[in-house]
Design goal:
About 30% of the residues lie in helices and about 25% in strands. By secondary structure, the protein is of the alpha/beta class. It has a single domain, classed as 3-Layer(aba) Sandwich (Rossmann fold). The strands form two sheets. The chain has a five-stranded mixed β-sheet, covered by helices on one side. The chain has a two-stranded antiparallel ribbon with strand order 4-5.
Length: about 120
C-alpha cells in the first residue's frame, strides 16, 4: 500500500493543449496515489508559494515556442530561483515535467529532485 502524497501541477497553456495534459496527469495521480492534487497556472503560482512548499511533489509543464519555454513559465521559473537555490525550500521534493504534446518522445520524461 502506498502512502498518499500532496501533488501540485504548475503549468502554462497558451492554446489549451498543456492544460488538457495537466488535467489528465492530475486525474491520474489522484486516482493512483495522491491525497490531494492541485492545478496552479504559472501566472498564479508566485502568489501560492505556501501551496508549493507544502507539496510532496511538483509537476510542471509548459508549451515551447520557437524552441524555448513560454514566457509566463520562464517568469515562474525565474521567481522560484531564490526559493530553490538560496532558501532551499524545495530541497528533497520530487519534481516531474509534463510530456510535450507534439512529440512521440513524450514518455521519456525523467524524475528529478530539488537539491
Amino acid at each position: 500500500m502506498s502512502v498518499p502524497v500532496k501533488i501540485v501541477v504548475v503549468y502554462h497553456s497558451g492554446y489549451g493543449h498543456t492544460v488538457k495534459i495537466a488535467e489528465a496527469v492530475a486525474r491520474g495521480a489522484a486516482a493512483v496515489m495522491a491525497r490531494s492534487v492541485k492545478l496552479v497556472t504559472a501566472e498564479e503560482a508566485p502568489g501560492r508559494w505556501e501551496l508549493l512548499d507544502g507539496a510532496d511533489a511538483i509537476i510542471m509543464g509548459a508549451p515551447t515556442y520557437m524552441g524555448s519555454l513560454s514566457a509566463p513559465f520562464k517568469a515562474f521559473m525565474d521567481a522560484t530561483s531564490h526559493l530553490q537555490y538560496v532558501e532551499k525550500r524545495w530541497e528533497g521534493k520530487s519534481r516531474r515535467r509534463l510530456p510535450p504534446t507534439a512529440r512521440r518522445a513524450a514518455a521519456t520524461s525523467r524524475t528529478r529532485s530539488f537539491s
